[in-house]
Amino acid sequence: MKAAVLFSGGKDSCYSAYLAKKKGYELSCLISIFSKNKESYMFHTPSIKKVKKQAEVMEIPLLIKKTKGKKEEELKDLENVIKKVKDKYQIKAIITGALYSKYQKSRIQKICDKLNLKCFNPLWHKNEIKYLEELIKNKFKIIITAVAAYPLDKSWLEREIDKKFIQEVKELQKKYKVHPAGEGGEFETFVLDCPLFKKPLKIKSQKISGENHSWGMEIKI
Q: Is the distance from CB of 125 to CB of 100 less than 8 angstroms?
């Protein structure tokens, strides 16, 4: 079945694409939304422009749609690009990285229902610790590109998701209720390598900005 992946470059969308391919879906294209609103309810914004590099090493066509990121209005922009992709690539399904966000899942499902497309959410309600362990097992190289929750600080930027990371976020979950997979916006990620990539990406430089427990990192690849 031909499918399009809602793609942000983070761990959730990359791993969902990987799982979908293993299930037999044909990854016909990637859809990335570039939102001007960094606080978008729907779309991931840190390092979003670097999805172009990921699409190149995945050798999958990428369609980009810009949006002002206004709540609910941004969904129209998403619907329009999905409709365009459906016609261009004859897709039958949309792949999402939704994990626990009912807000995102329900709105994407509504668009898919309207356009008569299947909506596949392979990560939905997956145990977050097992999920992180699967990422490592399946050779996903993932770094942290932004943090926005106590007690996370700029020392977490560019950290790789590894066994030590999992142990630390387990403790943070117990003490501070930090979601281990960053589902509450505690941190954002970027994938540098995975089985879908023909070759790994390397960071040439980075620019860090922020304060207290809200930090972001712009990377150059």
A: yes
How many structural domains comprise the chain?
2
**Burial zone of 2 (CB within 10 Å; 0-12 exposed, 13-18 middle, 19+ buried):** middle
- Close Cβ partners of 14 (under 8 Å, ≥ 6 residues apart): 7, 54, 97, 140, 191, 194, 196
Q: Are residues 139 and 86 in the same domain?
A: no
110 and 158 share a domain?
Answer: no
Q: pTM surpassing 0.85?
A: yes
Packing angle of the helix pair 163-176, 128-137 (nearest 10 deg): 170
At 156-174, the pLDDT tens digits run 999 999 999 999 999 999 9
Per-residue pLDDT reduced to its tens digit, 46-81? 678 899 999 999 999 999 998 887 777 889 999 999
49, 133: one domain: no
